[in-house]
């Protein structure tokens, strides 16, 4: 393999929860080290296969499948065929320039990139976004040089001497948004990059109850992609006489947060972290099937200081959710308290700590 190049490689993706932190990482790295090259390793089936080319990024896309929730035969195929082939593909890609550092951001493409780097003795830093580290990161952390934590609680499952709590990377444009009240108040519904069927069904029904009770409010609902999904949800709001905008995917998250007084969302790492940075009061409904129940732990990080309310999906119907929204959305004093508590939960100088750790290898002599 050729000598080390002036290159950082970011490996991983799949969903927005992995892709957007990877993009934010690339942006802040380039601001500190303008001459550093950044490349990506992702999956052909992931969200990154669309977003990275749109940004003009240098990326290697792997033909791989996830093993989470897969049957025995698919897991076996990935282990004995797809993963080794992906590693060889990565090594071939690195022949022109060997990365100084590989950062694994999660997702199945991250596994191949991280293992490829470990076997070639390239330094690796893992970036664990969730409050409960995933199985792969728990296994690989011992072979890596450092672990960046989105939530301090994640250190419980990792080698503590390698961990640094930096918080999750939130894009600069979102960090510039600061919560403020609106008249009438605005409700944001966010189910993640793939949408949330439960929220799509329950929230419009809850809003109908609130409208029938005489409340005036607006709704911005990100429903996720799906044939006829946006039209059906928009019709439900329209029939109830509610001023609502329904989107399949939101490309302007700062613009979305500007509209909101209260957010109803799943508790993916980035949704929770962005709510904290913006100071957005939230009702989190963790995805029950999330690996290691990590969404519950993510949500708890804001529920504990009073910045959010967490409700288990099994305990919610339209009436219960309407009652919870009513307690918060129309109580300006409570919302202000929640917003202030959210902002206070953000770790200080997280971005500087993150860059200082990466600088250990990125600033080292070639």
Overview in brief:
The protein contains 14 helices and 13 strands.
Topology record:
Layout: E1 7-12, H1 16-32, E2 37-43, H2 48-54, E3 58-62, H3 72-93, E4 101-106, H4 108-119, E5 124-128, H5 135-140, E6 146-149, E7 163-165, H6 172-175, E8 186-190, H7 197-212, E9 218-222, H8 229-239, E10 243-247, H9 253-258, E11 262-265, H10 269-278, E12 282-284, H11 294-303, E13 308-310, H12 318-329, H13 332-344, H14 350-362
Parallel strand pairs: 1-2, 1-4, 2-3, 4-5, 5-6, 6-7, 8-9, 8-11, 9-10, 11-12, 12-13
Helix pairs in contact: 3-4, 7-12, 10-13
What labels describe this entry?
366 residues, alpha/beta, Rossmann fold, 43% helix, globular
What does this molecule look like?
Helices cover 43% and strands 17% of the residues. With 366 residues, the chain is α/β, with parallel strands linked by helices. The chain folds into two domains: 7-167 and 348-362, Rossmann fold; 174-344, Rossmann fold (3-Layer(aba) Sandwich). Strands 3-2-1-4-5-6-7 form a seven-stranded parallel β-sheet, with helices on both faces. A six-stranded parallel β-sheet has the order 10-9-8-11-12-13, sandwiched between helices. α1 (16-32) links the parallel β1 (7-12) and β2 (37-43). α3 (72-93) crosses α4, α7 (197-212) packs across α12 and α10 (269-278) packs across α13. It is globular and about 65 Å long.
Q: Could you give a short account of the major beta sheet?
A: 7 strands, parallel
Share in β-strands: 15-25%
Output the radius of gyration. Answer: 21 Å
- Structure summary, number of beta strands: 13
Helical run tally: 14
Instruction: Estimate the global geometry from the Cα principal axes.
Output: globular
CATH topology of the largest domain: Rossmann fold
- Overall number of domains: 2
CATH hierarchy class name of the largest domain: Alpha Beta
Strand order of the largest sheet: 3-2-1-4-5-6-7
Let me know the average pLDDT.
Answer: 92
Structural class: alpha/beta
First CA to last CA: what distance?
14 Å
Low-confidence blocks of residues: none
């Amino acid at each position: 393999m050729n000598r080390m190049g002036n290159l950082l490689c970011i490996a991983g993706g799949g969903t927005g929860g992995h892709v957007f932190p990877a993009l934010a990482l690339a942006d802040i790295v380039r601001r500190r080290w303008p001459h550093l090259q950044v490349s990506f390793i992702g999956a052909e089936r992931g969200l990154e296969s669309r977003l990275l080319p749109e940004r003009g990024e240098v990326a290697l896309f792997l033909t791989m499948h996830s093993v989470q929730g897969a049957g025995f035969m698919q897991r076996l195929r990935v282990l004995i065929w797809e993963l080794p082939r992906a590693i060889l593909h990565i090594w071939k890609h690195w022949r022109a320039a060997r990365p100084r550092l590989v950062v694994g951001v999660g997702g199945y493409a991250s596994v191949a990139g991280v293992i490829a780097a470990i076997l070639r003795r390239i330094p690796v830093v893992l970036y664990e976004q969730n409050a409960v580290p995933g199985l792969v990161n728990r296994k690989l952390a011992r072979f890596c040089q450092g672990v960046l934590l989105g939530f301090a609680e994640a250190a419980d499952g990792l080698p503590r001497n390698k961990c640094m709590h930096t918080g999750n990377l939130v894009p600069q444009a979102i960090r510039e948004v600061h919560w403020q009240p609106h008249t009438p108040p605005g409700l944001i519904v966010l189910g993640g990059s793939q949408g949330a069927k439960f929220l799509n069904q329950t929230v419009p029904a809850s809003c109908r109850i609130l409208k029938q009770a005489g409340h005036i409010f607006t709704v911005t609902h990100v429903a996720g992609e799906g044939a006829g999904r946006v039209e059906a949800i928009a019709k439900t709001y329209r029939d109830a006489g509610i001023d609502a905008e329904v989107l399949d995917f939101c490309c302007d998250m700062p613009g979305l947060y500007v509209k909101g007084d209260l957010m109803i969302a799943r508790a993916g790492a980035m949704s929770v972290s962005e709510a904290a940075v913006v100071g957005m009061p939230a009702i989190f409904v963790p995805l029950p099937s999330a690996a290691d129940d990590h969404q519950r732990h993510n949500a708890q990080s804001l529920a504990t200081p009073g910045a959010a309310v967490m409700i288990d999906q099994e305990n919610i119907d339209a009436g219960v959710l309407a009652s919870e929204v009513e307690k918060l959305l129309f109580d300006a004093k409570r919302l202000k308290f929640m917003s202030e508590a959210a902002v206070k939960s953000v770790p200080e100088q997280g971005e500087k700590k993150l860059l200082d750790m990466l600088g250990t290898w990125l600033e080292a002599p070639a």
